[in-house]
Amino acid sequence: MRYLTAGESHGPQLTTILEGFPAGMPLLAEDINEELTRRQKGYGRGRRMQIEKDTVEIVAGVRHGYTLGSPIALVVKNNDWKHWTKIMGIEPLGQDEENEVKRKVSRPRPGHADLNGAIKYGHRDMRNVLERSSARETTVRVAAGAVAKKLLSLVGIKVASQVVEIGGVKARVDYSLTLDEIKDRTENSPVRTTDPDAEKRMMKAIDDAKENGDSIGGIVEVIVTGMPAGVGSYVHYDRKLDAKLAAAIVSINAFKGVEFGIGFEAARKPGSEVHDEIAWEKESGYYRKSNQLGGFEGGMTTGMPIIIRGVMKPIPTLYKPLMSVDIETKEPFSASIERSDSCAVPAAAVVAENVVAWELANALVDQFYSDRFETFVEEINKQREYAREF
Ligand code: EPS
User: Fold this and answer.
1) What is the rounded end-to-end Cα distance, in angstroms, of the chain?
2) Which residues bind NADP(+) (predicted)?
3) Model pLDDT for residues 65-113, shown as the tens digit of each residue
4) Ligand 1 pocket residues where CB is under 6 Å
């Protein structure tokens, strides 16, 4: 499967086209809207989220509630567009209009794509860069992921996430919680954590950052249960599923690193304390006695829960100015902005869930391909049976 997205942050709409879903899969706009709403929540977002009420329009590939096997096209309108029709207009500007267009950006923000993007594409107005590099784009990545998540749910695969750290405040992560318990707790937490004590301290850290005109980052964890064993491959670098997931996580705006299971902690432990012992029982087949490797060995799923963590740096658009250089005058200046999020880690957890869902659905469709959804499901169930008895 593949998908592309298009759209500028303050342009008329965001668009995505998804290709490769089998025909006959049930799909409703509300499956997607649920994820879009989840992404918009979260303590620490700025004023833009009060303007947008993201809802999807399915404009191709679905008829009477089922996928057709043709490309699926999704559109999310930007409510903020009405304030930007002149600045972000599609048509060429008249001679006298050029000076009128405000919000030309010649001052790159440290940590953003602004300066490098301007150098690469030759944009003297860095708005041409920031409009597309904005994390607004994650809206349609979530929409695409929501369709993938629907596919996963129909074959018994569940995806959840939790925020495990914000601005240096660590949550106590309880691995005895079921996936449904994690979902319940995080849906009711403004910072999407399962630890009520850390929740208060995380919110305080966000308040402090906001008061200081600063921003803070954090760590999100995605947990997936129900993936059959043996998905992905060890035979080539570009078929390793954990590698694809790592790329998907780091491709989310502001994400800088990724870990599976105990992750970087593996560097500090001997092999006997890292690797998960293998066992078998009649009911469930092979399993691991622990899950330190987070569901992957050799680029393939083990059938154990997948556990991935991603680290998000603090958002670089700061009220507190950092020094930079104006590209017109080459003079130093201290950057100031009009609006920003002080923390988007809770929203990023939802984005992470959905980009992970895409990669997993993609891997399943790759491996158990059928043009018809019904036979695709049968193939996956056969694989589960086969792996159990193997
Ligand atoms: C973003 C800047 C802010 C965020 C935006 C991402 O937007 P604006 O410049 O309009 O204030 O609100 O996030 C979203 C709009 C969103 O939907 O998540 C940026 O520069 O990355």
Assistant:
1) 29
2) 39, 45
3) 999 999 999 999 999 999 999 999 999 888 777 776 767 899 999 999 9
4) 9, 46, 48, 52, 134-136, 138-139, 253, 317, 339, 341
Q: What is the 3-state secondary structure (H, E, C) of the chain?
A: CEEEEECCCCCCEEEEEEECCCECCECCHHHHHHHHHHHHCCCCCCCHHHHCCCCEEEEECEECCEECCCCEEEEEECHHHHHCCCCCCCCCCCCCCHHHCCCCCCCCCCCCCHHHHHHHHCCCCCHHHHHHHCHHHHHHHHHHHHHHHHHHHHCCCEEEEEEEEECCEECCCCCCCCHHHHHHHHHCCCCCCCCHHHHHHHHHHHHHHHHCCCCCCEEEEEEEECCCCCCECCCCHHHCHHHHHHHHHHCCCCEEEEEECCHHHHHHCCHHHHCCCEEEECCCEEEECCCCCCCEECCEECCCCEEEEEEECCCCCCCCCCEEECCCCCCEEECCCCCCCCCCHHHHHHHHHHHHHHHHHHHHHHHCCCCEHHHHHHHHHHHHHHHHHC
Number of domains in the chain: 1
Cα-to-centroid distance, 89 and ligand 1 (Å): 19
The helix/strand/coil state of 100 is helix
CATH number at residue 258: 3.60.150.10
Q: Residue for token digits 């996936």?
A: 179
| Closest C-alpha residue for ligand 1 atom 18 | 136
Expressed as residue numbers, the domain containing 211 is: 2-389
Asked if residues 5 and 130 have their Cβ atoms less than 8 Å apart, the reply is: no
Distance CA(269)–CA(272), nearest Å, equals 8
Residue ranges of the binding site:
39, 45, 132-134, 253-254, 298, 313-317, 339
